[in-house]
Amino acid sequence: MPTAAPASKRQWFTRQRRSALLLIAAFWIFTFGMLSIRAALVSDLPFNVIGPRRLITAAFGTILCLVMVRLLGRLRTRSFVLWVACGMAGAIAMAFALTIFSTLMNRVIAPLPGLAPLRLADMAQWVLIWLGYCLAWTGTYLALIYHWKVEDQRRHMSRMTGLAQEAQIAALRYQVNPHFLFNTLNSISSLVLEHRNADAEAMLLNLSAFVRSTFAGDPQRLIPLHEEIALQRLYLGIEQVRFSERLKVIVDIPDTLADLRVPALILQPLVENALRHGVERSEALTNVAIRAERCGDEVRILVENDGAATGARTAGTGVGLRNVRDRLLVHFGGRAMLVTTAVPQGGFRSEIHLPAEFAA
After folding, report:
1. CA angle, 68 as apex, 65 and 72 as ends, to 5°?
2. Which of 86, 166, 201, 255 is least buried, going by the fewest C-beta atoms within 10 A?
């Protein structure tokens, strides 16, 4: 998609040029009409004499407006005060230019019959008339430029916010994989040291399938819950090689929630915690359960273990749970949260609360 942004930018500037041309055309049609009405009220000359001269003047004024558009366009990156100052100066220059042009046309190039001698007061009057029109056009065009600048800034900020969010999601997503790989490679190393080579080979094969599945996905994409559960089954298959008869996996996901959209690997740190603080610290069979249920306007996904710890508690860094909270915040804002509680009978429960609107 490398050409999408430039194409969009070209379309944006094309719309700006089209708007400027429409503004110029509308302004001079209006001005031609007003001056024609004025001529009909104060002049005895017929319209077939005055009309063509007004059209020529409008064409000359259009050229002046196009020049102003070009000049003001070069100042678009400067301060708004400079725009206004240059716009005022340009309007004054346009008023003098239009007055001089119409005077030369009516008195030198194609003299009108019966004109009174040229007076400075008449020239000043026409400068003021043209100045009013030119200031109206300049003010409208400056407002249009300001609108475009605000829209440019809004689009830029929106794009930067989107890119920052995508980068944050990707960073949080890929933070999970090194954490998991470190734990799994340690497990494989332990199996090799225990001469359980067949188990180590099975774990490596499962690890290969898991890594392919996780890295092939788009970190910005929300995936159906059933796909997330399939990823966790791959991971739990790896861990069942290590824990053998000490681990039992329970998955209870209603069909109505199978298509719930969740961030990929959002359950990974929670399942790892259930294994680390449940199965690893208990000599008895430990159940690790993944459940989902709908409660009113939200859906809860639970990951829990019932392990009665007998070994020393291992201190964690909290990276996994923090990662889950950060990713929920990035994807869903304040509408999603992670709640963790110790189970009184023994074990630990993690609950992800999501808006029910993401359930298909």
Report:
1. 145
2. 255
